[in-house]
Design brief:
Elements lengths: L1 H22 L17 E17 L2 E3 L8 E11 L4 E13 L5 E17 L2 E16 L2 E17 L4 E14 L8 E15 L1
Antiparallel strand pairs: 1-2, 1-3, 1-9, 3-4, 4-5, 5-6, 6-7, 7-8, 8-9
Length: 199
Amino acid sequence: MHKAGVFLLILLMGFPILLAAQDDDDYEWDYYDDLYAIGDQTFIITLGTILPMFMQINGETAPNKYTPPVGGAGSLCYNYYLNANIFAGAEVSAMFIGTLGSNTLFMLPVGIRGGYQFNIWKMEIPISIGVGMVWHRFIDQGYYGMYLKGGVSAFYRATTTWSFGINSNWYWFPQWVEDKTKNAYGNFLDLTISARYHF
C-alpha cells in the first residue's frame, strides 16, 4: 500500500512537468519583478505529512498520544492575485493521524487564505495566513470549530504554467467546550510538496 502511495505521488508531481515541457519548447519567456498582475490565478495541489507538536488543556501541555508521530495531509487551494505580490483565495484540506490506541483522528479544514509573495527570478516565496472552520472526527466523537494557520512556501517556476515547491504551515486548532477546564488547543506542523498551475 505504501508503494502504491509513493508511485501515485511521483506520478502526480511528474505528470505536469511532462505536459508543460512541450508548452515551453516554442516559447521563450523572461522573469521580472512584476511577473504577476491583477487577475492572475493559481490552483495548487498539495500532499505531505502533518506532525502533532503539542496539545494544551487547561493551560497545561498534555502528553503526545499519537504514534507514529506523523500523519498524512493533502489540500486543494485557489489564489487570486490583487497585484504582483498580494493574493487572496480559498482552501480545503484533509488530514489524518494515528494514535497510541490504534485509532485515527481525522480533520477537514475549509477556509480562506491570503498572503504576500516574493518573486526572485524563477523562485517564488509566498507567506500566507489562513482562517476557517474544521471538522474533527475521532472514533465516535465529533467536533466542529475554527482554525488558524500561518506558513511559508518556496516554489520554482519550471514553465509558464507550472511551478513546484515545498511548504510548511503551523496549524492552531482550538476546541472550546462547556466545561472550560477541558478546553483544548492543538498545535500541528505540516511539511508538504506542491504542484501549482498558473492561469
